[in-house]
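Let's sit down with a protein and look at its sequence and fold side by side. Please make up or recall a protein chain and show it to me in full. Label the sequence line and the structure token line clearly, so we can match residues to local backbone shapes. Go ahead whenever you are ready, and we will take it from there.
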Amino acid sequence: METSSTKPVIAVTMGDPTGVGPEIIAKALIRPEVNAVCRPLVLGDMETLERGIKIVGAQLRIETMGTGVPPEATTPGVLYLRSLSDLSPADREFAKPTAAGGEAMFRYITEAAHLCLSGDVAGMATAPINKEAMNRAGHKYPGHTELLAELTGTRDFVMMLAGDRLRVTLVTIHEALADVPRLVTHDKVLSTIRITHRDLHRYFRANPRIAVLALNPHCGEGGMFGTEDDRIIKPAVEAARADGIDASGPLSADTLFHFAVQGDYDAVVCMYHDQGLIPLKLLHFDDGVNVTLGLPIIRTSVDHGTAYNLAGKGTASERSMVAAILMAAEMAKQRIETYGNAT
């Protein structure tokens, strides 16, 4: 069992072999701050990672691990790899994802989830995938989150985007703006608040302060600009407060973020994608982290896609990958200190 004095093992999934994942992983794993706080175990493809290391000029040697995890005393300059695929050159061609690559992505994610559930690793950080390629391989999921929800038996989950200055969670995610008002229901808002509270309390800060945004400008201005804030969001906030959650709202989005960034709140519950992602990416475009709340495991991810226009050039920024690994390690440390090794 891990203790607070040991460095947690974080599974790092390689993602799309034709994108920037292998390169940003290689760049991230030579960063001393990463190796100071965790033992990364990469789940990926040997030759693809070797190519990524060469492209970025990283001083890394791959050590393959069929079983087990990296030792407590890890060797500097070593990338510990569990190789789960043997991709052909055609399946590694930059910016040309294939079904075989999609199958490989699925294997990396599935293995990481199983390792988390078994307790062999403390959490997982994921590089970007190509959802279409994974679907072509027969795995019909919109993305990481839905696959991980199925693998862990999770029904209710929340997307959180986070950086040092701001954390946002979303009631609705990838939906047409015209559909958002009908999707913002009392139960969905309340569930999002509860999951946000529970996992922030578990992994980040005891008794977190949560701001809940209005859907409409000026909280609907007494019904002039819409009634959802008074009819739906306000009662949900009141129900959360009755549960002992420190939630405030509905609050007007045009002013709230100023106070959140000043430190008045630990997270902001947003009603739709752009309401939360515009301010988050304004502040954390390069180092934002996508965290899936509600799962029984720790999962963080880069907050960007496969970046095919940069693949193979060695110029893609590793900052989001570094931030994702560091956040997973910090969450694991907090969980271990508070709950032992319980998930």
